[in-house]
# Entry
Amino acid sequence: MQRFITEAVFSSLYGIIIIYFAYERVTATLSSAGKSAKQPPQLLTTIPVITYCLLAFSAITEYFLGQRALNYWVSALGFTIFITGIQLRTAAIKECADNWNIHITAKPVKKIITSGPYRFIRHPYYLAVILELAGFSLISNSYFTVAAGALVQVPLLLIRINREEKELQEKFPGIYLPYKKTVNALLPACGGRRGRGKDS
# Structure
């Protein structure tokens, strides 16, 4: 692959990806903000959004300032992971419908969703965020940003998951706990742990 792609061609393609990424995230953020406009801002919402933007900017900066030769196979893998993350996030939001909210609160949640991607993992949206950042960083071989994301963004999302699940267990004590026991949080189970595949 190296011999068919020049640095200039890659830079042009990467620029297109950056524009698409920025447009997609801005429109998604504005849509989510509109649905949650009546709720006060939360630190565990604001901080991950800020770190997400900083990590994306870090990946771009690392690419343009770095001097290393790019491994285009890694870039192709990163692009695949990146697109998978976007598709998973879209599917998670669509499956939630009116249940969707960017803040940590169980008040607007009407039922526990166990269909679609929620059949296999409890938090497909958060997995999507991780895949997006990791994939976007790998496209430009920004390995320091990948490491920073693992050290910063992932712990923040795990804290969100813990807080969110406490509220859901309090509101749906007889439903969420059995769901939690049968479906993993972020990684699909290889064995017998599976969701029920229907809304509860």
Q: What stands out?
A: The chain has one domain: 2-182. The chain has a mean pLDDT of 85.
